[in-house]
What does this fold into?
Amino acid sequence: MSRKTILDVDTGTDDAVAILVAALHPDLDLIGVTTVSGNVPVENTTDNTLRVLDLINRSDIPVFPGLAHPIARRGFPGQRHFTPGTKGDMHGISLPLPEARTAAQSTSAVEYLLETLRRTTEQLTLVAVGPLSNIATAATIDPSIRDAVDDLVVMGGAHAHGNVTASAEFNVWADPEAANMVFSAGFPRLTLVTLDATHQALITRKDCATFAALETPAGHAAADLISRRIDAYSANHGARIAETAPVHDAVCVAYLLRPDIVTTRHLHVTVDTTGPVTVGRTVFDMRPNATGTPNAHVAFTADARMLVGLLVETWAHGQRSLRVPGDLTG
It folds into this structure.
């Protein structure tokens, strides 16, 4: 039986790759996608999500637009700031995919989460790969929905170093109060996939060529989107990340299919919401005499070759491409 899953996304390039896996793997039943402001404003994350699903003929999966801002902050710089059109801009405002043919649902993301989790007769899996604004809001309105989730998988946080500041990873930093609320909400199981893990699962240009050679819409799209990420990482990080890039959000979906792709530790996690230079930092109590009840299974490592193998396996069996290979713009 396929695992019923909801994705909560702020669709830029890595979210798009995660959607391509979740919507096409036969062991996952992607019943809905909710969007949130993050990599780009929510109207663009929603449009980008529709573009991805339309590309692979999965417009049957409904998309629900979510919150346009953090739950407790106004004027907080929630989106990344790269100069559009430069190699340092890995997401852009609109993904380089054909324009969406379908429209989002009129029901909001929070309403959808509440309605779906309240009425389900079986536990669902929730994968959140953007700021946690939607999840925190839904769990605050009705804390009981947490019991309908068998695993809340979150892409976020970091131990060694952040990516938007020296301390903080972007998804947590973009709405730190929401993240702290989610970690303390009492979900029966919460799996946190950190930058420490995703930066070990680097995708290479050779891997992108393998994806493109599959001659499927998903393979071509992934090759182009990940190549764009590699260009951006090369421009922003130079020799530190040469000709490779992490695809953070895809690791979360891969974990559902191959849990051994990551290794985890069960820890107590909190988020700094007040420090002038550490706001958004995820604080892991890793002491031998740690206090506080562990609330997250935290991934610190990931297997790159296992990830690539899973991506190839998933996209090799998708619908054959009907457009000219590499033509993802019209």
Observations:
- The two ends are 36 Å apart (CA to CA).
- The chain has a mean pLDDT of 91.
- The chain has one domain: 3-316.
